[in-house]
Amino acid sequence: MKLVGALSLFLTATSAFTVAPNGRPTSTSLSMSGVTRNPNFSKLAGGYLFPEIGRRRNAYLEENPEMADRIISLGIGDTTQPIPENILSGLVEGASKLGTKDGYSGYGAEQGKADLREKIASTLYNGLIEPEEVFVSDGAKCDIMRLQQMFGTGVVSAVQDPSYPVYVDTSVMMGQTGLQDPETMQYENIVYMPCTAENEFFPDYASLPRADVVYFCSPNNPTGAAATKEQLTDLVNTCKERGSILVFDAAYAPFIRSEGVPKSVFEIEGAKDVAIEVNSFSKYAGFTGVRLGWTVIPSNLQFSDGSLVRDDFNRVMTTAFNGASNIVQSGGMACLEEKGLEEINTLIDYYLENAKILKDTMESIGYKVFGGTDAPYVFVQLPEGQKSWDVFSDILEKAQVVTIPGAGFGPGGEGYLRLSAFAPRDNVLEACERLKVTMA
Amino acid sequence: MKLVGALSLFLTATSAFTVAPNGRPTSTSLSMSGVTRNPNFSKLAGGYLFPEIGRRRNAYLEENPEMADRIISLGIGDTTQPIPENILSGLVEGASKLGTKDGYSGYGAEQGKADLREKIASTLYNGLIEPEEVFVSDGAKCDIMRLQQMFGTGVVSAVQDPSYPVYVDTSVMMGQTGLQDPETMQYENIVYMPCTAENEFFPDYASLPRADVVYFCSPNNPTGAAATKEQLTDLVNTCKERGSILVFDAAYAPFIRSEGVPKSVFEIEGAKDVAIEVNSFSKYAGFTGVRLGWTVIPSNLQFSDGSLVRDDFNRVMTTAFNGASNIVQSGGMACLEEKGLEEINTLIDYYLENAKILKDTMESIGYKVFGGTDAPYVFVQLPEGQKSWDVFSDILEKAQVVTIPGAGFGPGGEGYLRLSAFAPRDNVLEACERLKVTMA
User: Between the CA of residue B281 and those of A323, B257, B331, B408, what are the distances in Å?
Assistant: First the structure.
């Protein structure tokens, strides 16, 4: 085999072994190593939720290829509107300047560029937090795993049930849990905090077993519930009393339009004593594919031995991460300019109008609906006895609309269906027409 | 406190608690949680190497602020040349199109865009691997942690000594090790494979205790040694015999210019039976700040229970990662066009010429020097008895040149100094003049 030109940059022209004429290596039989599989991975039941949804959608399309153009996704919370002008110019300039001698930059601080950390602290938190408490990242999902990495194997985690599946899945992967009970669908050694219509989707943590780390997302994914100031004050106080660390996921906070509902946990007095906040530009700046988020770790928060949580998170960030892309951080700066914030506001208006259309439609055909006012998710209560995965399949087959079954977010989500408001308006309107037929 | 305009997107106008006139919260006293610190973090001796180098440099500059303009970095391997035209246009277009209805994209596959996976497999590996074996990521450092996450707590890791500190540090963080022995500076339960001038920097793994996972970087960081085809064949065969998984770090492979030296482990017959390859665009496309890498997991590689390694890595990628930035992946595609590969080649020429200058200079003043021909690192052997951290400090103080002490890469690096060839040419030449004075 002769390799020519630039290819020899990556392969050595004289050393490759026999390759079949199609370029494929000749042997591909299975090869068993002597390395034991990480036992925590065998505890995981099924794949991660969203790829699983995609798999089922693709399986449907394989059997029904004529439906490819008809399919509409109200599934994964994936933004669809183009990035607005000012924010876009931040990204484009961030890329362009890398071609110039003065504008080029290599490795930045793993914690993020100083100007962006400063801007987040001053513009978004009005000085409630310090720049050195901000860790800029490639997104909230990745930060949750890095937090788990920091907490390690020995902690007990509590989650809202239902909730974003990353909290539970990463707890399992880290070895914090036992097996999943096939009856309850709950993992051993996770504290599930029921969030149902009965308790207005706000958990009663004080009545449940203590956890070391309490994951709490508001507005919640998938229920769309946003905790009030009183509720959040209670939760912060309970965590303080029980010595729990609260990981507050604020990824949807700017969607809150109701008066007086907190958008950051640090609006609650005493929160810096117990809380970490995870955040993301994904959903309101159109950055789901661009990748930018941040996590706030208060400098005063300690483990039980007096060591600083911030120091250990800093060790994770510097050792296992190399900073968010410099191009993307430049886009983040543009988001936080006055014009960028206005553009974000306009995007949120658009998606919240979608949510209202979905909510009104489902209510008009007799469903009880939650969320959708302070959140881009509409959580639809199904009639008694209907299983959410069955309803998901039914809607996919009859209406070619992709939704997410509530059970995908934990056992507490059974009996509900999540609709995402991130589709283009036309698709939302068309989906509503079909859902009126299929679900009425 | 009244919040106005866009600020209310992120904070609730009516609910913030009392903030001091400077905007700072009124209480910042320490707060001890009841959460036990992850014991693995207390095993880590000191901070991560490269921030520690930066800390010492900054401490020096604080005491000698008049030297700020004089300082030259031959320290961290951070690219300094602007991104060339074709690759840059890929990045800029990747950003620009997000502002259009047709060009916008949100979440991509967590494993990377299909076209980029295909292009990596076909262009860089000439079909030796399949697209579905390629996992595109935000860099090799992050992938090493994700591999550790997959392997878990129960494995024994082997590392070249000296080596890139991420292998050992992440093994410690995952709980695979015991404490560091203050005499030998080695962590308990890590297999250190000595790589010294005596064995031409190639380890004799067969004579050492078996490890589950063998981390091997060629060309090596920091020694600059590139393993020959015979050496690599031996290593692959030994790993196969012992049932070890070889994690081959090829981040510097395109710097290899010697005839017949492999640039990918998959050039070795049988490597797909034992090896994973970690790779990165950082060092040769100028992407240290842009963030793009990939990891190849052969589809036939199994754990001892017959489960596929690729499936568990896929679970990590989908659950704890959300894909490399779509903008950056567009830049990756441009790297792999004919023009992009030529640009990469030119950048490598430039940095290798730097390496030659550094190597020649150090040899001219009587040092024994390794690396620097097939690698962007020059590894200088210090006179008997000199400690590398002392020499580092001495050069910083007398010549205002930042280097990296060999001991920072593991106990086997003691007695050596690493010089990076990534500085601009002028800086390299000036540094050489100063080193001739200071080190002669």
Answer: 15, 18, 10, 24
